[in-house]
Amino acid sequence: MITKKITRLNNKTRESLNKTLNELYNTQNMLKTFPKGGVHPPENKLSADKRIETLEIPKQVTIPLHQNLGAPSKVLVKKKDKVKVGQIIAEAGGFVSSNIHASVSGTVLKIDEITDTTGYKKMAVVINVEGDEWEESIDRSEAIVSEIKLTPEEIVKKTAEMGIVGLGGATFPTQVKLSIPKGQSCEFLIINGVECEPYLTSDHRLMLEHGKELIIGTQILMKALNVNKAYIGIENNKPDAIEYLTELVSNTNNTIEIVALKVQYPQGGEKQLIKAITGREVPSGGLPIHVGVVVQNVGTTYAVYEAVQKNKPLFERIVTVTGKSLSSTGNYKVRIGTSVDLLIEKAGGLPSDSGKVINGGPMMGKALKITDVPVTKGTSGILILKNDEAKRERIMPCIKCSKCISVCPQGLEPYFLMNLADKKMWEDAEKQHNMDCIECGSCSYICPSARPLLDYIRYGKQNVGALIRSRMKR
Amino acid sequence: MNIILLSIIVLGVVGLLAGVILYFIAEKFKVYEDPKIDEVEEALPAANCGGCGYPGCRNFAESCVKADDLGTLFCPVGGNETMKKVAEILGKTVEDKDPLIAVVKCNGNPNVRKKTTSYDGAATCAMETALYGGHTDCQYGCLGHGDCVDACSFDAIKMNAQTGLPEVNQDTCTGCNACVDACPKNIIELRPKGKKDRRIFVSCINQDRGGTAKKACEAACIGCKACVNVCKFDAIVVENFLAYIDPNKCKLCRACVTVCPTNAIWEVNFPPRKIKTDEPKKTQPKKNALENQTKKEEEAPIDLKNIIKNDNKKDNEIK
Q: What's the first-to-final CA gap in chain B, in angstroms?
């Protein structure tokens, strides 16, 4: 379409337009990125210019007891207990686990099984809201506290206490990431502000509206990890955030650097981001710390700031509510446990032609079975797809075009992993490194035969994971 | 002509020499194998289904020959007759075992268990289970993609297009356990065939509270314990809001079948009961699963749904 328009213009304008287009192309190509694979789905950042609104407190919240990667938390309250906002209601049930706090004040109605996003039952605490009474220890003032008083050990302890988990979606407990195992050292901290998922804008808005807090959060994390260099990686489709944060870090003595990254999915994948910024490659089966890097999401960094400086536990998060058919999209600050129904209502109700309601973005998110499910620490967005957008195409036979291989950012062979999963050949799937899959969905996105590659690989990962665990037990 | 003759002679001599050498080598490195293994293998059904717990019939035969006691070894396909033959060959004794049959413990057909979401991913039960709780509100129920059908080597389990549930043909089912392993929801259970092939079982595995279960599926076991109270033989236990009938204690009196408010308890191969006029609702003869199935098989001339599904499946098959 652009070229068509150009032909209609006169020669001079055409030349200048071509020049700018070339420049754009060149800058895009000069930007840092990961070297292998990746796709570029339509960005559809519909809610990018919508300010973060605070959603009103619902009448009842349902707080699931398993909101993090790892072990579920152990409940501390009983039925009919009175709780305050920020009061701990469940403690970590292991090393890789996190505390959970009440997001509202009121009475515990019940501790019971609820249907979660997948349709399976999960334990949760249901609280009836009465007023909005916060714990006294929480600093509710708007003032920005920039002086970091705590020692590194205290910071790590605080993040554990306040139940901070990775808010990018994986919900990995932050204190585990911050406690570096013996014999390893951290050189760089990378703050992930990429937000490469189409549609989602919560991180983008956070960077624009809470940039200062974000920088302090970064400094807190740097202190906790004892590193002198931090990078904030931002995809180039958020020039306003890049500009604003670059301005903010100008007085930090170059310890924090803003890195503009090429718009390419999955740029925000932990391993891809490390490769793009530092050039280091996380080994197969390894963690970022093995190459001296720790990656934290911007949402997590903000939560760390609030926990350390304001003493505020993680009981609310920013959720993008978006979709082409919605009457109003937006970014909302939501108390954990609020029903997704309420969020959709706020966005103008569920349109009649809705095909799927997705928890997360279109690439990695999972469709909700019912909409009456609570927002958890891992809910980064609610995406509503129209019927025709949501429907999968008919699955056709593999034509061996190897597109899935060329887009896999991890260098895997998705079609082969799918075959192995279909034949239940778990040992072979393990040998083909199917556990290295980051579940970005690029293969399923690009497949011209609409084959459900990622579904099979996920299924394979479940089984290979079980195989590895059973081997470890033995 | 000479060349042809020469070639034949040279090749023939080389072949002969190689044959002789190979014969001596084979004699020298001969591995002794009990000839009884071959005999036992001959007696086995050669289905190689793995139902006995061994990878194939030959492995089973080997362990039969090695074993001192045949008590723990059993070929579910051949049954007691085959095991008697095996025992005869080996000069051992074997006790008769109750033949087993696969029983599908879900009766949530689309009329009683409404579809609440549509699933358009890969058409296998294992995949759907891995992704979410299933397209109905019952997270325990049958998904109907037929993983069990694909697993059966004896063509004994088929999907019923009307109910969307698998049905077991009791004449061909060998109780080899393949479908039990294939079902990701653990719906299928191996139960004794019972006297005169009659059996009673709870056709549900929903472990939710009564209200939740009933909301998801009208035919679900709600754990009301009506069957427990009526059972004179202590054969029924209710655990996690789900009744289970112990086949060893059950005396097939059918008292529980009539009291079940959701018709979740099924009776198979019983003669129709005498209908009492005053209580028509409860005394209506229960549908005889097997009879229904054979009837439906005869009645339904073209199974369009299945054909379409099979076509789709073929397309989906990985080449």
A: 50
Q: Does B118 touch chain A (CB under 8 A)?
A: no
The minimum CA-CA distance between B105 and chain A, rounded to whole Å, is: 19
Task: Set out the domains of chain A in order of their start, with CATH numbers.
Answer: 1-30 (no CATH), 152-310 (3.40.50.11540), 315-390 (3.10.20.600), 403-473 (no CATH)
Tokens of A146: 């920039």
pLDDT in tens, A385-437: 999 888 888 899 999 999 999 999 999 999 999 999 999 899 999 999 999 99
Closest approach of B247 to chain A, Cα-based (Å): 30
Are A97 and A84 in contact by the 8 Å Cβ rule? The answer is no
* Helix, strand, coil share of chain B (percent; to 5): 40, 10, 50
Q: Which two tokens stand for residue B157?
A: 């389990």
pLDDT tens digits, residue range B71-85? 788 888 888 888 888
Strand boundaries in chain B, DSSP class E: 100-104, 157-159, 166-168, 188-192, 199-202, 236-239, 242-245, 265-268
**Rounded distance between C-alpha atoms, residue A402 and residue A448, angstroms:** 10
Tell me: domain B35-90, CATH 1.10.15.40, correct?
Answer: yes
Helix or strand (DSSP H, E) at B21: helix B2-28
Q: CA B178, CA B152: separation in Å to the nearest integer?
A: 6
Give residue-wise pLDDT tens across range B61-73. 988 888 888 878 8
**pLDDT class of A448 with cuts at 50, 70, 90:** very high
> Which one, of B20, B64, B21, lies nearest residue B40 by Cα?
B64
Q: Which of A115, A392, A419 sits opposite B318 (nearest CB)?
A: A419
Backbone angles phi, psi at B10, to 5 degrees: -60, -50
Q: What is the pLDDT of residues A202-258, one digit of tens each?
A: 999 999 999 999 999 999 999 999 999 999 999 999 999 999 999 999 988 889 999
The mean predicted confidence, pLDDT, of chain B is 83
DSSP state of A48: T
A459·B127 Cβ contact <8 A: yes
B147 with B125: CB under 8 angstroms? yes
